[in-house]
Amino acid sequence: MKTHKKSTLLVAAASLLLGSVAAANSKPNIVFILVDDMPWYGTATMQEEGFGGSAMKWRNTPNIDTIGKEGMVFANAYSAAGMCGPSRCSIQVGMTAARTRYSGNGNFGDDCTFEVSYIEKVKGAPFLEPEPMGSIHPDFKTMGDVLREQGYATAHFGKWHAYGGGPEARGYDESDGETSNAEGGPQLCTDPKDPKRIFSMTRSSINFIERQVASDKPFFVQISHYAEHNQQMSLPETLKKYTGNPEIKAMEKSVAREVATHAAAVEDMDTSIGMVMKKLDELGISDNTYVVFTSDNGKGLYNGKDRILRGEKWWLWEGGIRVPMSMKGPGISAGSRSCLNVVGYDFLPTFYDIAGGDVARLENVDGVSIMPIAKGGNVKGFKDRALFFHYPHHRNTTQHSVIIKDHYKLFNFYELPEPYLYDLKKDIGEVSNIAGQMPEKVQQMKSEMDAYHKRIDALLPKPNPNASENYVRFDPAVKVPPVCDLVDGKLPKLDKSKGQAPEENQSQEKMSKEEKKKAREERRKNKKAGV
Ligand SMILES: [Ca+2]
């Protein structure tokens, strides 16, 4: 009897132990927070350790900062594209913009058939451009699809902007529907207590999380904020903190407005992120939940004299694609940092990996699981992998593609004769084109880019039979002047109207004043004629 009692106790103890092991082994949850148009330096966290220019003085983001403090900050994180739709599509399917063919804005919501027309978007330009797809291809599996296969409950709240019938047609159990910018804009977002739908999407997310915990199901929730995309909104009391600040008030009017409205919207968003993390604590699941924070693309916002990235949203310069990123969760050491290159199309394989999926079995995916980096393990191979970015369109930009490998970045501006090469380690501001100094590196990277485009049958610009001799070719030094000179350590005040041409770029095709005038007149004439 005594023995029996003892063995019963042992069994009970063993099952308790097994129970706790089972709980520890249960699939981790994932909360993916994607914000809109936040620059690399858009939080109070320095993305690059010790580099003041990688944070923003006017941002109050204690909760976003906590994700980095309790986990890892990625200094070299990239969005898959320089704008919303293409970046979001790439995130959902784990592919580059070249492979999804949703590489630019336009044709939103049209069926993605891969039947492409080439158009003369800019009259007389040397190359025609392929019209971008404006929707996720129906055959592509999304993050929702692959996580569902792993037994996850899946939800997407907030801005979708990837079309394809909306999240619930593409692998998600719950969502806010096929939303885009409009739902977060002033016409449709009118509740003053819910600026940019920050708090309602947070309530939906918390409600979803609570239900999954109650039913003991692992979950994936993507919280896609409309902030800080243009048309900022915030709680009046939050905005007052910034508009009433004497230092901001003293700024030039338009700058003061930008600084205050964006900072207020971001602070409200940060508050909502704090609500989600508090709920994870209350539910006792923080230790088994990954929280990931990033932005869908960069943005050229004012950051005092420390604004250091070249270019802007839409472009593939660092200002368009370098984004903030941090991640916390099981196995990630608090306060850790990584300088390895990671990109938006890594999220699908990363989350699939977390969910217990075999990443090697994913088909046609360009990304890789970044969990080895996050867990500080074997990162062999990460240093030399190539990231690809593709923008064969004209929208505020010229047609261009980029390959980033280790700390080198090569641009192919299709209408210029030679590629441009930058060493991001020494020159994050992309000031000095070093292509002339490293011809072998240029050749090797250009070949790798061309081979990738060939392998995936990328849509490249095609020669325009009506190319005009008077067409003004893109000149980076004039169109996208660098904003700083890190070599001297001096950071000149941002002035978009005056582009200081760096010497190494001055050899590019220069036009005479007369030629430029003539081309300007032709453009004006075309515009008038509605071409
Ligand atoms: Ca965006």
From TrEMBL:
Entry-linked InterPro entries: Alkaline_phosphatase_core_sf, Sulfatase, Sulfatase_N
Region (Disordered): 168-193, 489-531
Superkingdom of the organism of origin: Bacteria
GO MF annotation list: arylsulfatase activity; metal ion binding
Sulfatase N-terminal domain residues: 28-356
Cofactors named for this entry: Ca(2+)
Signal peptide interval: 1-23
Keyword terms: Calcium, Hydrolase, Metal-binding, Signal
Basic and acidic residues bias spans: 489-498, 510-524
Coiled-coil region: none
Pfam families per record: Sulfatase (PF00884)
Family according to the record: Belongs to the sulfatase family.
Protein name (Swiss-Prot/TrEMBL): Arylsulfatase
